[in-house]
Amino acid sequence: MPQPPTARLSRAQAYELSQDRGINPTGNESLTDVVRQRYGRRDILKGLAGSAAGIALAAGLPLPREAEAATAAKPRFSFSEISHGVDERHHVAPGYDADVLIRWGDPVLPDAPAFDVQQQSAAAQAKQFGYNNDFIGYLPLPAGSSNPSHGLLFINHEYTNEELMFPGIGRQDTKDKAFRDMTRERVDIEMAAHGASIIEVIRRPGEKWAVVAGSGMARRIDALSTACEITGPAAGHPRLQTKADPTGRRVTGMINNCAGGLTPWGTVLTAEENFHGYFWGKREDSHPEAGNFKRYDVPGNWYNWGQHHERFDIAREPREANRFGWIVEIDPYDPTFVPRKRTALGRFKHEGAAVVVNKDGRVVVYSGDDERFEYVYRFVSKGRFNARNRKANFGLLDEGTLSVARYNADGSLEWMPLVHGRGPLTAANGFASQADILIEARRAADLLGATKMDRPEDVEVNPKTGKVFVMLTNNTRRKADQLDTANPRANNEWGQIVEMIPPNGDHTADRARWSLLLKAGNPADPKVGGQFHPATTASGWFACPDNCAIDNQGRLWVTTDQGEAWAKASGTADGVWAVETEGANRGLSKMFFRVPVGAEMCGPFFTPDDRTLFVAVQHPAADGGEKFTRSGKDSTFEDPATRWPDFQPGMPPRPSVLAITKKDGGQIGS
Length: 670
Prior knowledge:
Layout: H1 11-21, H2 31-39, H3 41-48, H4 52-59, H5 64-70, E1 91-92, E2 96-103, H6 122-125, E3 133-140, E4 150-157, H7 162-165, H8 175-181, H9 184-193, E5 195-202, E6 210-211, E7 219-221, E8 227-231, E9 250-252, E10 257-262, E11 268-272, H10 290-296, H11 305-308, E12 327-330, E13 340-342, E14 350-357, E15 362-369, E16 372-374, E17 376-384, E18 400-407, E19 412-417, H12 434-439, H13 441-448, E20 453-454, E21 456-461, E22 468-472, E23 496-501, E24 511-519, E25 545-550, E26 556-560, H14 566-569, E27 575-579, E28 589-594, E29 600-606, E30 612-618, E31 656-662
Parallel strand pairs: 8-13
Antiparallel strand pairs: 1-28, 2-31, 3-4, 4-5, 5-6, 5-7, 8-9, 10-11, 11-12, 12-13, 14-15, 15-17, 16-20, 17-18, 18-19, 19-24, 21-22, 22-23, 23-24, 25-26, 26-27, 27-28, 29-30, 30-31
């Protein structure tokens, strides 16, 4: 394996390093280039000078007279916003409760033991709530109903923070020491803490939300022992075959599941994102997947799983990494359902899977590839949704067309199919079949000339308007020589939100329109160039949009992930913001919720009546909490920046899911 650095990298630092190594090598246009061409130098310069006209034009916001009128227009969100800040606790808008529903280590399965942080085991963790909860999906009970007070929650467990899970591991440790401390037993525990949890939840009249103890529908899916099926065009391909699975159709577990989505037939799509970090060793030029692995930065060597499990060592099992990086479909209503990795949707570092049934009945899935200079994708099914037969839809995502987006300077968008035999996607360029294209979706998109984006994360479809919102988190690797004075977003620490508008609501059309909803970052700082509605307050703006949700009224809610750079990006903790998307208040943003220090805000999801918003607080204390530790150094198990949510001596911080409700029982935000 490569020589370890002197100091052990945090997960965020390792991610930054991998972004450098795995950077998109193509000369394809970036979104910055397109924005500069589309809006023009003079208009953007006016925006930089602070004029309302320049800001409005660049962001797709109202022009000055409309902006003046907007200050008197009635906003769609009536809550009193909270202020920017950071401390050891979470905060929610006045008039709301934010109650912890379930925490890392809490029981999931009926026979789960009580959580003992000093006596952890893989067997116990496999029955308990996993670590770093991310995507949340609420599925009403019974299936097919719209019950807003009794249902299932599907919750992803993206990754683990070893230094906060186990004693004796510090982020100042060398990698050698940290990996020695991560024994086989501890590795198995963290593998069991990955994957997903399915829990039954209920809110009885006059009571708060609670987990239904002993539910027969509860389930844990993990990276250690859960069998998954590989389906679609790449299933069985030699590049997915291993010593443990010579069929290329069965794989153990799923890893780094970030965002996701729900299907109209009541299943969950969960997205495998940074799978590269779990693989171990040194990539030699002679490796059979050398070019493919280089494009995905495999191995990442974030974890030492490969020291204890052969399949994660790229020398001993050269194709295992090809079995991760997929969208996984799961039926939460069936505890015996075998998770299915749908290869037709392509292999990349998926963030989210937004599903919509098109007018003609075909199913469309949007997804982003969460890395700097990567792409936005769309899948269109061959078959059509059957509203009368739920099980008839279970194969819809195995046949269809995967496309990648090119954003043009005139505001048009092209969806370019990744289909074997079309254009450069031929054997001459190393694609012998459609399976090869899907396994190397990034390289196929490179050859088609897709637009390089600033970390495409969550993508969501507004069911009321048909518009599609893409969260672009940031891109600190964008160089100044890629820009000119017309666009000062080099070293983009703040991100932006792109809006895609299908023609006449047709999500299968080859072309669409696009615009910028807003540019994140402080609009009062001309060096930042943030662009929100002029009425947005000093606490209303945000940095690094990551996940989002559309409530049942068609309103947009955005959550953020600033990583360790939060103090520089915004000076505030991550949280939830409500954002206006239509009319005179377009681009107006208000702060609704704030996480404790070092945490990321994930997984916003509404119940069908909009009276509950579930959110996931991930890795509390992990990012940039030096001012809150006793030592003044990075958080550890022994000395964390916060002990949220328990605040008990000896208990480390615990990632948790919260249920946010209005004290008067009304709809969230209204």
